[in-house]
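quick one before i forget lol
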Amino acid sequence: MQNVTDRTRNPFGMRPDCPSFVPGYGDANADFHVVGDHPGVHGGLKAGVPFTGEPWSPAFLSALTEAGLLAGLHEDAGVDGTVPVAETEAALATPDGGRSDDPPIDPIRTNRTYFSYLHMCATDGTPSERSYDDMERFFDAELRAIAAHVLLPVGARATAHVLQQYTARAWKTEIDMDALHAEELLGSGWLVVPIKDPADWVEGDADRLVESLRELRSTDFRRESDLGRFVAGHDPYLVR
């Protein structure tokens, strides 16, 4: 299925019941889905874009750009993926003197890539387990709507969740992010490539991720079945 939308920010119109949240961002027909934890851990409140505005954001975004998952940043965006306040306010202003809720400036140019969080709402401190459970419906709906071929969970919590919910490997996989970082794991319909939390990266972690993703992109990583043999004609019928 092809998602028909040109919206980069929150393309499915997710509206959780919380005052402030960081919705999904990127290509609604992505091949790669980068999964984070929540805004308190992985940022994004300033720009409204996951994984931006943190001290480690420049290194993280740069690695994804080098790997080919991003096409770079908007000319007005900083290296951390945020846009200066003056530019943001100017972009939000409408001709009638009002204010738009949907900034036209997209600071990150994705390349068949989508970003989202397990828990998109901003909270004071770590969300409760009950809150994570409540927000699961938004994340799962978005993940299945995107139907990317490769899931890239960032950090221990996102990695544990993805392995538990979308693979049959959780019971035999220790959540050791140093060992799992940039390694390919076959899921149930997805290929999973865990990413160590960027705040904990040491020398070599960025290069390891770039090399792994470049190698992956050079192969046929798509998780599809050709059902063309069941329909008339000779054209392939690829299904996720």
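fyi Strands lie at 25-26, 32-36, 70-73, 108-110, 113-117, 150-153, 185-186, 191-192, 225-226, 238-239.
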